[in-house]
């Protein structure tokens, strides 16, 4: 199995991504590191433990990471994810296992000792930027970085041009992208960018959630509890039935690269002004820079949903 650490800010769709990762035999989840994003770090860690408890996987360690962006003030996303980050389901906290301190140290140590470890980053890139800045020697052990963030076609979800994860900590995103251009251990690799271009295609609808509850009462009801608020939000704000779920596609892509298609280019992230957090993709190679990213632009939502359901609910469900 592919060894992965999941860096996340749970978050409704982060929790769906964790469910997928933990139910996938193709992945060996070495640990979960939490960053501030949708909710503060401590709340995100509680939410990660809730999904581990549901799946009886409390053996997977959860580490607390950064509590604020590198430079900017922290802005959460509780308007979309609810006060508890899980759609105001207010599921009880896990009490017998607690999150551990030291996400960055855990990342550094695991990369150094185990090698060939991939990171799936589902939140702002603050933890990853700190890892690059503070422990550059361990990056030899990084096999692949898949990040949910950014938007190639310049259509954002928290400004006209910016996606939340990169908008929340644009300085961190810039550090990470630029490290894949300049760091000797990363220069030969490319960040896999699962941006809004592909994740916007992934829409969860109430009928799918109902179907999931038929496949497993326990997991289905958990998903129903945490997504209700998200459905209401989309219905009230946009008059649409169903909601975009971003993060699980990054996990699915990490398992099976044929789920998305894209192209390679140099990318950086804007850290000031009205385009704050925008991914600037040099599609036509004006700058003649190292191609530090692989920008995914196409996916097959039906294939993804089948993949999600069969992995989370078992092989004969589809
Ligand atoms: C991203 O922002 C968060 O709200 C979601 O969890 C996802 O990672 C989408 O822009
Ligand atoms: Ca997220």
The percent range for helix content is: 25-40%
Sequence of secondary-structure elements: EHEHEHEHEHEHHEHEHHEHEEEH
Q: Please report the number of helical segments.
A: 12
Based on CA atoms alone, the radius of gyration comes out at: 18 Å
Could you report the average pLDDT, rounded to the nearest whole number? 96
Form type: globular
Main structural class: alpha/beta
Distance between the termini: 23 Å
Total beta strand runs: 12
Unreliable parts:
none
Protein name: Purine nucleosidase
Pfam family, one: IU_nuc_hydro
GO molecular function: purine nucleosidase activity
Domain Inosine/uridine-preferring nucleoside hydrolase: 4-305
Kindly describe this structure.
The protein is of the alpha/beta class and 318 residues long. It contains 12 helices and 12 strands. A 10-stranded mixed sheet has the order 4-3-2-1-5-6-7-12-10-11, sandwiched between helices. Strand 3 (62-64), helix 3 (78-81) and strand 4 form a beta-alpha-beta unit. The two termini are 23 Å apart.
Explain the layout of strands and helices.
Elements lengths: L1 E7 L3 H11 L4 E8 L6 H14 L7 E3 L13 H4 L18 E2 L1 H12 L2 E5 L4 H9 L7 E7 L15 H5 L1 H13 L8 E4 L1 H4 L3 E2 L1 H10 L1 H22 L4 E2 L2 H9 L4 E10 L9 E4 L10 E7 L1 H13 L5
Parallel strand pairs: 1-2, 1-5, 2-3, 3-4, 5-6, 6-7, 7-12
Antiparallel strand pairs: 8-9, 10-11, 10-12
Helix pairs in contact: 1-2, 1-11, 4-5, 5-7, 9-10
The structure holds beta-D-ribofuranose (BDR) and calcium ion.
Spell out the key features of this protein.
single chain, 318 residues, alpha/beta, ten-stranded mixed β-sheet, two-stranded antiparallel ribbon, 12 strands, 40% helix, 19% strand, binds beta-D-ribofuranose, binds calcium ion
């Amino acid at each position: 199995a592919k060894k992965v650490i999941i860096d996340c800010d749970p978050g409704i769709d982060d929790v769906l991504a964790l469910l997928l990762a933990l139910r996938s035999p193709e992945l060996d989840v070495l640990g979960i590191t939490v960053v501030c994003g949708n909710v503060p770090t401590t709340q995100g860690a509680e939410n990660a433990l809730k999904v581990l408890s549901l799946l009886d996987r409390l053996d997977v360690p959860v580490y607390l990471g950064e509590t604020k962006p590198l430079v900017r003030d922290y802005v959460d996303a509780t308007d979309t994810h609810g006060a508890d980050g899980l759609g105001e389901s207010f599921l009880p906290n896990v009490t017998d296992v607690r999150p551990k301190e030291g996400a960055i140290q855990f990342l550094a140590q695991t990369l150094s000792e185990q090698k060939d470890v991939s990171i799936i980053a589902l939140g702002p890139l603050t933890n990853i930027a700190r890892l690059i800045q503070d422990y550059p020697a361990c990056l030899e052990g990084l096999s692949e970085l898949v990040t949910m963030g950014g938007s190639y076609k310049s259509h954002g979800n928290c400004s006209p041009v910016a996606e939340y994860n990169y908008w929340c900590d644009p300085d961190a995103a810039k550090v990470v992208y630029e490290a894949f251009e300049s760091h000797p251990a990363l220069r030969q690799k490319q960040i896999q960018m699962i941006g809004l271009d592909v994740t916007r295609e992934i829409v969860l609808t109430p009928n799918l959630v109902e179907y999931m509850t038929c496949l497993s009462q326990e997991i289905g009801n958990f998903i129903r509890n945490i997504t209700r608020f998200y459905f209401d939000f989309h219905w009230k704000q946009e008059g649409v039935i169903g909601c975009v779920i971003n993060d699980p596609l990054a996990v699915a892509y990490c398992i099976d690269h044929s789920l998305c298609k894209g192209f390679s280019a140099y990318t950086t992230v804007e850290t000031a002004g009205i385009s704050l957090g925008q991914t600037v993709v040099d599609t036509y190679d004006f700058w003649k820079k190292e191609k530090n990213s692989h920008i995914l632009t196409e996916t097959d939502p039906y294939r993804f949903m089948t993949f999600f359901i069969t992995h989370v609910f078992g092989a004969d469900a589809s």
